[in-house]
């Protein structure tokens, strides 16, 4: 997977040579920007903000592309096929370390900061006899992608509990397949996020570790990012986008019922599940502390040879 990620990222400079149109103001004076993200719960504030006129108040109209995956979003952003996209913070760190011109603008998803009440957890089968992450030493743990933040979170849970995180065998299993993999005993544990965390618990899994809060108290899991070139060429658009996102998050924090009602309208999550899942935290700043720690993990795991300049990665 490290090789696949590197191959995808390294094609970006070639893609970036293509032509792309700048965002242009329409007759109504609004500038249209295209956003790329998987159709997950963190998009709910974006759709609500569009409905409520938040983006319009900042001079923007957003169009959301849910077909571009996080793994291919870096080439799409650098080629100006989309203006902003969501990216796992580890992926952005790797991209920046490889010299790719990505700029994290504002968090897309974040830990709630509350162990026991977060939207990601390390889980085991309820009848496994495992009650601490330390007991996963030398065992098999599933993560959705070996090269992203899930691996760091799983290992951090084990390390904080006093275990040898390097002795754990990580295997890739997509989140939708995790509940069955745990209940059927195909893995000893798994790192999983909502709504699949709730699905796993419904099949008897129990959380034993909360790696997001172990990584950093204000962990940025993923970020909305653009290219550094776009930020330099259109700083007013980037600022307007960040301000609109922050306003959207302020609304989301005060209207959780509307967030939960919105999620089933653009995902395959049912209203019943949306009503009980733990929702991501809404943060206004990309966590520098989290980025530093994730950069260290990426270097340790051989994803990068040296940490990138985080001042170049994170917009301030």
TrEMBL record:
Chain segments annotated as transmembrane: none
Membrane listed as a keyword: no
InterPro entries reported in the protein's UniProt record: SsuA/THI5 (IPR015168)
Protein origin, superkingdom: Bacteria
Any Gene Ontology CC annotation: periplasmic space
Pfam family, one: NMT1
Primary location recorded for the protein, binned into one broad class: periplasm
Keywords carried by this UniProt record: Signal
Domain named SsuA/THI5-like: residues: 44-258
Family affiliation: Belongs to the bacterial solute-binding protein SsuA/TauA family.
Name of the protein in question: SsuA/THI5-like domain-containing protein
């Amino acid at each position: 997977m490290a090789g696949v990620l590197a191959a995808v990222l390294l094609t970006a400079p070639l893609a970036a040579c293509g032509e792309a149109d700048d965002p242009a103001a329409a007759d109504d004076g609004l500038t249209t920007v295209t956003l790329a993200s998987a159709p997950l719960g963190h998009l709910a504030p974006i759709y609500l903000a569009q409905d409520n006129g938040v983006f319009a108040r900042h001079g923007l109209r957003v169009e959301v592309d849910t077909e571009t995956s996080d793994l291919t979003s870096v080439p799409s952003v650098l080629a100006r096929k989309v203006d902003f996209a969501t990216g796992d913070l580890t992926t952005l760190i790797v991209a920046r370390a490889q010299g790719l011109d990505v700029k994290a603008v504002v968090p897309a998803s974040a830990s709630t900061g509350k162990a026991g009440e977060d939207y990601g957890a390390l889980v085991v089968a309820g009848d496994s006899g495992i009650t601490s992450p330390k007991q996963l030493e030398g065992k098999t743990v599933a993560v959705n992608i070996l090269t992203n933040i899930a691996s760091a979170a799983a290992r951090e849970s084990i390390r904080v509990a006093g275990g040898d995180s390097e002795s754990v065998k990580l295997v890739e299993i997509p989140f939708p397949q995790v509940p069955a993999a745990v209940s059927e005993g195909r893995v000893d544990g798994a790192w999983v996020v909502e709504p699949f965390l709730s699905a796993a618990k419904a099949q008897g899994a129990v959380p034993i570790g909360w790696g997001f809060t172990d990584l950093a108290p204000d962990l940025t899991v993923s970020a909305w990012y653009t290219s550094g070139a776009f930020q330099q060429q259109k700083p007013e658009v980037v600022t307007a986008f960040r301000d609109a996102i922050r306003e959207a998050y302020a609304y989301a924090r005060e209207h959780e019922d509307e967030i939960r009602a919105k999620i089933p309208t653009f995902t395959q999550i049912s209203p019943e599940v949306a009503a009980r899942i733990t929702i991501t935290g809404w943060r206004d700043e990309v966590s520098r502390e989290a980025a530093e720690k994730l950069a260290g993990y990426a270097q340790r795991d051989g994803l990068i040879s040296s940490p990138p300049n985080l001042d170049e990665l994170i917009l301030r």
